[in-house]
Amino acid sequence: MLKETIENFFHCSVIFYLKPSLEIKSKFNINILDNVRRGFYPIDQDNVIIIGRFVNQRTLISAIGIHLFGDRLSENVKLLNIFEGALTGTFTQEFANHFQYGPLAFGD
Predict the structure, then answer these.
(1) Which of 44, 36, 93 lies closest to 65, judged by CA?
(2) Which range marks the domain in which residue 97 is found?
(3) Is the model's pTM score more than 0.90?
(4) Under a CB-based contact definition with an 8 Å cutoff, are residues 97 and 91 in contact?
(5) Over its length of 108 residues, how does the chain's per-residue pLDDT go in tens digits?
(6) How many structural domains are present in the chain?
C-alpha cells in the first residue's frame, strides 16, 4: 500500500531496502549511519533515497530505505524533505503505539 501510494504521488518507481545500512552502502556507497538524523539523499536528477526512520527518545531504533526513481525527481527537494519528515514522524509515532493504527495512520 505504501509503495503504490508513493509511486502514484511522485509519479515514479519505488524500491524498498529493508536493510538500508547494508544495501544502500553496497549499491550507492552511502553510509547512512554516518549521520543517523539525515533522511534524504539525492543521488542524481532521477534518483533519490529516502530513509524512513523509527526513533525512540531521540535514538534511532530502525530504518527503511526507499529508493525513488523517475524523471527529474530530484527537482522536488523541498517536497521530498517534507515527505521524509512526515514519514519518519509517522513511523516513530506508530512504533510508539505498537502499530495499532496501521494503514489509518499512513492514510493521513
Answers:
(1) 36
(2) 2-107
(3) no
(4) no
(5) 889 999 999 999 999 999 999 999 999 999 999 999 999 999 999 999 999 999 988 888 899 999 999 999 989 999 999 999 999 999 999 888 888 876 666 665
(6) 1
Alpha carbon 77 to its chain centroid, in Å, reads 13
For the record, the C-alpha cell of 79 comes out as 517536497
The three cell numbers of residue 106 are 499512513
* N- to C-terminal Cα separation, the chain: 13
Torsion angles phi and psi, residue 21, rounded to 5? -65, -35
Three-state secondary-structure class, residue 4? helix
Q: What is residue 60's three-state secondary structure?
A: strand
Integer angstrom CA distances of residue 55 from 22, 47, 60, 71, 86: 19, 25, 5, 31, 13
* Residue labelled with grid coordinates 539523499: 41
